[in-house]
Amino acid sequence: MSSTRFAIKDHHENILGFNVLNGRTWRLPNGSVWSFGLNIDPNPSRNREAAVRALRAAPALPESKITNRQIISRTHSPYNSPVWPVRKPDGRWCLTVDYRRLNANTAPLTAAVPNIANLTATLQAAAQPWMAALDVKDMFCTVPLKEEDKEKFAFTWEGIQYTFNRLPQGYKHSPTIAHAALAELLQTVSLPQEVKLYHYIDDILMGGASPEKVGKAAAAVGQALHKAEIEIPPGKCQGPSKEVEF
After folding, report:
1. How far apart are alpha carbons 75 and 48 in whole angstroms?
2. What is the pLDDT of residues 63-107, one digit of tens each?
3. pLDDT digit string (tens) for 11-50?
4. What is the dihedral of CA 102, 105, 111, 114, to 10 degrees?
5. Residue 9 contacts by C-beta under 8 Å, 6 or more apart in sequence?
């Protein structure tokens, strides 16, 4: 009997220190301090020094590139969250904004994102022999913000205030909203019989009894995403195969 394997990869929205304990500190009896979700020293004065060093080292904001994509735009807002540029291992810089204060004052949403443990159990029980997986590129950036909400996401860079026009990283409801937006789109896709579709925020998995049907399902999903101007990098398409990473 052949077996099917899938691997549930780590997802940044399910890291305990980044989410549940994000922004919290734990003081040990010996006087040392653990700071969760922060790659900085919990001492305020040293934090400011580290922030200044990071800001000085970061390159200029590629305004024309991201404004042309309608990701950000200039604004004048009473809101303003601090910027914390992060350098990736490959040397590129990532514009991140510290929305902890905004998150703390934002009402909760009913979770629309599947519980990862329940989703894993469902996949294991289905035991589909053939699977295909797609990983959407920059899913948050495909979801526009309502006009009345844009001012809340303002930040200042080199004396100019900007805000996001699309869902930003770091906002606590971005994963839930992005998941719901992609789920709504996927509901419009007609799948071959006996092919099941599962998705988790920006990851999509299809399973079925034959590689032909799963391949047709993946093609249909890909066409729907392309029509909605949602990209899937070539390296993020897997299958049909008996083993995929999801």
Report:
1. 25
2. 555 555 678 889 999 999 988 777 767 776 677 888 999 999 988
3. 444 444 444 455 555 555 555 444 444 444 444 444 444 4
4. 40
5. 245, 246
Sort residue 172 into left (φ over 0), alpha (ψ -120 to 50) or beta. alpha
Q: Are strands 5-7 and 243-245 parallel, antiparallel or unpaired?
A: parallel
The span from the CA of 21 to the CA of 25, in Å, is 8
Hey, what are 95's tokens?
């514009």
Q: Please name the residue ranges forming H helices in 27-139.
A: 44-57, 63-68, 100-104, 116-126
Tokens of 11: 């997802």
Three-state DSSP at 222 gives helix
Domains delineated in the chain: 5-245 (3.30.70.270)
